[in-house]
Design brief:
TIM Barrel; binds cytidine-5'-monophosphate; alpha/beta; globular; 246 residues
Length: 246
Amino acid sequence: METNEAPMRPAGPRERLIVALDFPTREEAFRLVDDLGDAVTWYKIGMELFYAEGPKVVQDLRARGKRVFLDLKLHDIPNTMAGAVRSIGRLGVGLLTVHAPAGAEALAACASAAREVGQGADRPQLIGVTRLTSLAAPNPDRPWDDVVALAGTAVEAGLDGWVAPVQAASPLRAAHGSSPILVCPGIRLPDGDVGDQVSVGTPEGAVSGGADWIVVGRPITRADEPKAQAERIVTRMLHGCGDGAP
Ligand code: C5P
């Protein structure tokens, strides 16, 4: 799909951080949002919170002046995916995930549907999930070939960019250039607990590899001092390494 629109980018260094609200209730989610205050602008709402609380949780976050990445990872037949994008488009989300393996036809249907609901920054930017960061490479000798190929299909179909592990950032930029949006989850500080993630990287590693946004869940949501941790992560993205770096 041909488009003249430039993809949306983070407005500043703080806006590169997306905090994943992986909570079962709005009370827990908004307690964290209140704690983080103006340190964080972008939040990711995933299946756990959305299926429990519904679209209102998106609208309430927007009402607080926050930006929303709705991570519902759509994957279905083209007509159903496009319908879902139209419904979601009315909620005012900034970023929305679809599964890139859904295929070129389904991705193109989603891209058209997104452009029906708005133009430029007023429509959801569609990003394709290439490979989940909890999965190992299917071919360890050429670990990013599958991700790079899926990413090519996604942008050719009219998607705005991708979600991909930090280690895929450089291969993706080398293969497909700097224009598509790149969002990297699986972020950990050097001494952090990896949990169920297989492909992890640091905030500064993600940005230097070419990520526009990073998604951080447990390293912030389970921190003793979430706001200080969020500020540490933003500093690391700005200066390479937050602690003592110039
Ligand atoms: O807690 P943690 O920082 O590992 O959370 C990462 C978040 O990013 C989770 O909400 C997860 O669903 C999401 N995500 C991911 N890998 C992808 C896409 C999204 O980990 N490929």
